Amino acid sequence: MHKKIRIQFLLTVLIFLFAISPAWGGGYIHHEYVWELPFDSSADTYSTRETIISCYNSLNGELLNCPFEQEITMVTPYEGNSDEAIKNNGGHTHDYTTRPLYWPADGEGLEFDYDTSSDPKMVVGRTNDNGYKIALILHHMPEIGGRMLSETRVFVPDPLHWVCSRGCYSNTETRYQTIIDVAIYENTFINYWWYGFSFLYLSPLTELPDPGEDDHYVKTGQKTTHPRNHYGTTDTIAKLEDIAKRYFMETGRTLQINDISLPKGGLFDINANWKPSHITHRTGTDADIDVDKKWCVEDSKLRDLVDGLAEEGENRPHLLCENENHEPVDDNDKTGKYKHIDFD
Question: Do 159 and 190 belong together in one domain?
């Protein structure tokens, strides 16, 4: 019942778009850029992108039965370690042939009740085969950050008919190309107090800078499969730099900062197999610190610094100790070897 009501509502919206669309013979390829959150298996939360397709007789508004297909691919394969490559692949440089483009990774892919394709990355159907006279395709976002290309191709009987998806056009074939940026973003407020207003915008994760002469940390843990592993929220990065500076002043030791998150957040598969691991390293709010001669349970200076920072800030970071199996243990547990700072 809810699905039927939703589809009827969407149909009304599409008819409205048809009525107000400003141009006959709009562009042949229509481009769009959108942002979606990656699926989070630890919290069982996901985001879904809907595509709605319909065809109209431009003379009388009658809904038609037009063939269409939608396909999901990567924007480009991984090439080098450039900033553009990192944006496209989300920090993963391994086995693109098996990279999941939807969730669940072992599921049926794009969801459409009347799909005639056997390819999970493609839907093939018609707009009026489901009794509702429009096609509704659901794309559940994958766990992996990075950019995907969604292309929808609709074949219209002749130029006197319209096709509507995101806007209405009268081409005999209409293609909608959408770049889907699957990524973790943080809310950032900018205050213009002298004008009396502020606004909110979404900003991507920030990379921990390469250390300069006055910095007292090193970046570790990079692998050929994940060469850029030091991305976090602006708050996480700022506090890590502050902790490193204070830690050096207290101990004379350089802080060895290991994994934070990948450039787009989401799944950090340290075993390079597209399967969940490193669960807490999805959102840029957790950092691993190398042992460096002192086990976590013994490193009272680091614990005091983190606890002291927690009293000053809003996010209250704290130091977690883990045993040899990377399982959390109590602060005083003698098996607490590995260091993990939770900033959220």
Answer: no
pLDDT in tens, 104-156: 888 888 999 899 999 999 999 999 887 778 899 999 999 999 999 999 998 87
Closest CA to 339 of 284, 276, 292: 292
Residues 280 and 172 placed together within one structural domain of the fold: no
Q: How far is CA 278 from CA 198, 272, 287, in A?
A: 36, 11, 11
Residue 160 near residue 72, CB atoms below 8 Å: no
Total domains in the chain come to: 2
Task: Say what the pTM is.
Answer: 0.84
* Domain extent at residue 201: 185-342
- Identify the CA nearest to 265 among candidates 234, 233, 293, 288: 233
Task: Supply the DSSP symbol for 325.
Answer: T
The answer to whether 106 and 52 are in contact (CB under 8 A) is: no
State how far the alpha carbon of 277 is from the alpha carbons of 144, 180, 272, in Å. 12, 24, 10
